[in-house]
């Protein structure tokens, strides 16, 4: 039958990537000279599974590679080979190779064949160094085939043969499929009925198999019962007709089949009896479900509990719906209270359902954190630094899309900490610190956001150096006051690096600006707090999800806009005395001690507002890109959760707008892009300043 | 039709075996490791058990030994799926009471041929 094996490829790839992650983290836990058998076994098992699967599903390159890998691991497992730093390094490289081969398979792309071959060669060299005789010698037993007229098989099962589930009838049936047979059954050992043990096999057979059958094929039939029977296979040299004359002329197979069936019937009786007495050992042991972490890919694995919760909630919804339906059938005013109850129930269930659905998209941040042990291990040895990596809050859940996008910025920040932040053991010692630097990745929820902190106890930012660099780059002037905020801003400027020499780890000044851009695209923010000599903490704030947010609805003219609640600081009725027109038309509002740019939304979106006089309107103070602006609107409407629809996919990008949503009455409302508006207001102001100059 | 228990920690292998057998008309129950397999074997009766060797929690060899200790599985055919063609694993398997083995990689046809051989 033709079964399309490609339908299993996705599952295979997914579990193989998981297996590789397991291998990698186990390898990192493995210290040279100390081979914890369980860890080694776990590594072996992963390699073994990948090998088995790749061979079965036709990924020959992977199978070939993992075969060598497995052989090496088997030697380590068997204690024939010590765990050395060299082996650990080679195995880690192998993991990368297999990962690249499988990724290439998944994405239908190419992988670095050269790299794979070189690692493979390295592994093979290691194997050759000691005995290369580990390869199976399975072909030894094969006898060269010769033309024969048939075989005489003397088959005497041991008493206990059927207790391994091997049925002599099966073997005879199989022989029969090879060619014509004549069978003699020897019942000589059969005891008297009272002594007969139904679990034992008392019968023996002499089978003549006619035809030109390869001896290896005959041997194969008995492969599984080797050691459980006495077997003599000899070539039928004599004339076929003489042989058959000696043989009992009957077709004994049917007879034997019948006899064995009876035997089996008896077995069953006994089995049933034993079943009753033996029921004690069927005490249930709790079966632990494997909690396999979901792989990043196009699919999400969802825990049964989450799905159950959904089903439960849908059930509740159906109940509420039917209740409301019934109410509506003969509705009168006396039932209003009941209806309100029902509606609030419906609202609650809908919200819960929404939350549960969102939870399906949530993955623990350990997915993003998992790659760091390896990264830190590799980089610290490359940089000659001693670094301890501490991970905490790995169970903090984050939307899958956010997770995918935060991976690269995180890697960049960690590399930066390793390269620039943490010092070499000598420098640390001289500074009175412990030789081993600490890098701490922490994640937790705070309000509606998730916070990721990257803390190191390294050198911290050198403010003087940054200042000098910034002045030489023309980013600031000599006189400018140098606040911490400014430092933050400078670090994230494109092309800004104070590294004296560019290493291949970091320091090209490419990246921090990209990091900030990526994080902002996710609606998040990034901050650095640094203590010179003591270390730095980089804090990333991210929204929990990209699909839904809490929004403040505002009206400008006839249009409704939505401002993300997270970016709103306060809303106020503007007072004339606080408004200052600086130059030309740039307006600022004095809020306590701060001067805040005013952005008239009707100007940006070219609308006809109710009022153009700020005194009669409302200002919504929002914060983005590290500074505040006041949005001038006609009216504040309600607050509600909105589902974000992408404008780019449905229409096109518009400055100052990050997306759209559909309101309860069916109209479309734009969601304001606060950081974008802040930038727009800056540009506007600077253009005006230029004009004046 | 016969009911078959397939035990493998690799989801893709288990799915492949299960799919092939179901296509051929067998009833199939899956288990992800030896411990789960043993548990399932205790609560239901199977005509054939197909198990991987290398698995977490309980390996295939131990599973075979445990099953043979249970009265209902004293004579039930148990096949090992193994990539280890070495005589070593086979002997261990046989000593534990396995009926036979099927060496990976195998294709669905080879699997069915072997199973039909065992189940008749």
Short description:
The complex is a heterodimer of chains A (693) and B (120). Chain A is α+β, with helices and mostly antiparallel strands.
Give descriptors for this structure:
heterodimer; A: alpha+beta; Four Helix Bundle (Hemerythrin (Met), subunit A); Alpha-Beta Plaits; six-stranded mixed sheet; five-stranded mixed sheet; 21 helices; 22 strands; B: 120 residues; alpha/beta; Rossmann fold; five-stranded parallel sheet; 5 helices
- Oligomer type: heterodimer
CATH topology of the largest domain in chain A: Heat Shock Protein 90
The strand order across the widest sheet of chain B is 2-1-3-4-5
Beta strand % of chain B: 15-25%
Number of strands of chain B: 5
> Which structural class should the secondary elements of chain B be placed in?
alpha/beta
- Using the coordinates above, name the CATH class of chain B: Alpha Beta
Mean pLDDT of chain B: 87
Count of all domains of chain A: 5
Helix content of chain B: 40-55%
Low-confidence stretches of chain A: 131-146, 239-252, 260-297
Quickly name the level 1 CATH class of the largest domain in chain A: Alpha Beta
Q: Count every helix of chain B, treating DSSP H or I runs of 4 or more residues as helices.
A: 5
**In DSSP terms, counting alpha (H) and pi (I) runs of 4 or more, how many helices of chain A?**
21
- The helix content of chain A is 40-55%
**Structural class estimated from helices and strands of chain A:** alpha+beta
What would the CATH topology of chain B be?
Rossmann fold
Number of domains of chain B: 1
- Chain pair sharing the greatest interface: A-B, 55 and 53 residues
- Outline of chain A, from the CA principal axes? elongated
């Amino acid at each position: 039958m033709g079964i399309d094996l490609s339908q299993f490829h996705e599952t295979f790839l997914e579990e193989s990537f998981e297996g590789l992650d397991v291998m990698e983290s186990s390898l990192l836990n493995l210290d040279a000279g100390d081979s914890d058998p369980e860890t080694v076994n776990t590594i072996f098992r992963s390699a073994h599974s990948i090998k088995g699967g790749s061979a079965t599903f036709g990924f020959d390159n992977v199978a070939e590679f993992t075969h060598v890998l497995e052989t090496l691991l088997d030697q380590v497992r068997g204690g024939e080979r010590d765990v050395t730093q060299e082996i650990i390094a080679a195995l880690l490289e192998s993991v990368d190779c297999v990962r690249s081969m499988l990724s290439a398979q998944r994405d239908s792309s190419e992988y670095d064949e050269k790299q794979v071959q070189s690692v493979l060669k390295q592994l093979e060299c290691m194997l050759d160094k000691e005995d290369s005789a580990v390869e199976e010698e399975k072909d030894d037993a094969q006898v060269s085939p010769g033309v024969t007229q048939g075989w005489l098989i003397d088959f005497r099962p041991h008493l206990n043969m059927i207790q391994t589930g091997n049925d002599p009838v099966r073997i005879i049936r199989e022989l029969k499929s090879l060619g014509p047979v004549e069978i003699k059954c020897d019942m000589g050992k059969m005891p008297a009925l009272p002594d007969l043990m139904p679990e034992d096999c008392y019968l023996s057979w002499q089978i003549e198999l006619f035809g030109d059958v390869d001896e290896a094929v005959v041997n194969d039939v008995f492969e599984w019962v080797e050691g459980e029977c006495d077997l003599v296979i000899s070539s039928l040299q004599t004339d076929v007709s003489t042989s058959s004359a000696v043989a009992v002329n009957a077709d004994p197979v049917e007879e034997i089949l019948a006899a064995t069936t009876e035997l089996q019937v008896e077995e069953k009786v006994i089995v049933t009896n034993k079943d009753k007495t033996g029921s004690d050992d069927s005490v249930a042991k709790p079966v632990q479900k494997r909690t396999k972490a979901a792989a990043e890919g196009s699919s999400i694995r969802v825990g049964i509990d989450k799905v159950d919760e959904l089903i439960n909630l849908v059930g509740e919804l159906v109940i509420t719906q039917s209740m409301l339906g019934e109410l509506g059938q003969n509705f009168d005013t006396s039932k209003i209270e009941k209806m309100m109850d029902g509606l609030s129930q419906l609202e609650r269930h809908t919200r819960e359902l929404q939350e549960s659905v969102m939870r399906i998209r949530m993955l623990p941040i350990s997915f993003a954190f998992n790659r760091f042990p390896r990264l830190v291990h590799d980089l610290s040895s490359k940089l000659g630094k001693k670094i301890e990596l501490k991970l905490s809050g790995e169970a903090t859940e984050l939307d899958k899309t956010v997770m995918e996008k935060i991976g690269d910025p995180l890697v960049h920040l960690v590399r930066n900490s390793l390269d620039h932040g943490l010092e070499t053991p000598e420098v640390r010692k001289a500074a009175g610190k412990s030789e081993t630097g600490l890098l701490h990745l922490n994640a937790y929820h705070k309000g509606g956001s998730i916070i990721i902190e990257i803390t190191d106890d390294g050198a911290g930012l050198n403010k003087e150096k940054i200042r000098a660099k910034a002045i030489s780059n023309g980013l600031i002037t000599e006189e400018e006051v140098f606040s911490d905020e400014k430092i933050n801003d400078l670090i994230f400027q494109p092309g800004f690096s104070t590294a004296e020499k560019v290493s291949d780890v970091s320091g090209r000044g490419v990246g921090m600006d990209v990091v900030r851009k990526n994080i902002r695209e996710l609606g998040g923010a990034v901050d650095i707090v640094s203590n010179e000599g003591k270390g730095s903490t980089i804090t990333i704030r991210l929204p929990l999800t990209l699909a839904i947010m809490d929004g403040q609805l505002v009206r400008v003219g006839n249009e409704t806009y939505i401002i993300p609640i997270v970016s709103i600081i306060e809303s106020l009725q503007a007072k004339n005395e606080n408004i200052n027109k600086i130059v030309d038309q740039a307006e600022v509002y004095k809020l306590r001690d701060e001067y805040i740019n005013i952005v008239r939304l009707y100007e940006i979106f070219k609308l006809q507002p109710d009022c153009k006089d700020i005194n009669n309107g409302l200002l919504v103070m929002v914060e983005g890109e590290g500074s505040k602006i006041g949005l001038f609107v006609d009216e504040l409407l309600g607050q509600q959760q909105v589902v974000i629809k992408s404008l780019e996919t449905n229409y096109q990008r518009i400055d100052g707008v990050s997306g759209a949503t559909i309101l309860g009455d069916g109209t479309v409302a734009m969601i304001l892009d606060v950081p974008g508006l802040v930038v727009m207001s800056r540009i506007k102001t600077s253009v005006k300043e230029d004009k004046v100059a | 039709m016969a009911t078959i228990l397939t035990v493998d920690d690799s989801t893709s292998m288990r799915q492949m075996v299960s799919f092939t057998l179901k296509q051929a008309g067998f009833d199939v129950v899956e288990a992800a490791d030896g411990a789960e397999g043993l548990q399932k074997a205790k609560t239901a009766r199977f005509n054939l058990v197909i198990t991987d060797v290398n698995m977490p929690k309980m390996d295939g060899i131990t599973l075979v030994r445990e099953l043979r200790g249970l009265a209902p599985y004293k004579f039930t055919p148990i096949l090992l799926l193994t990539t280890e063609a070495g005589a070593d694993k086979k002997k261990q398997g046989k000593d534990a009471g396995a009926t036979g083995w099927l060496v990976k990689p195998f294709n669905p046809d080879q699997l069915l041929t072997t199973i039909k051989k065992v189940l008749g």
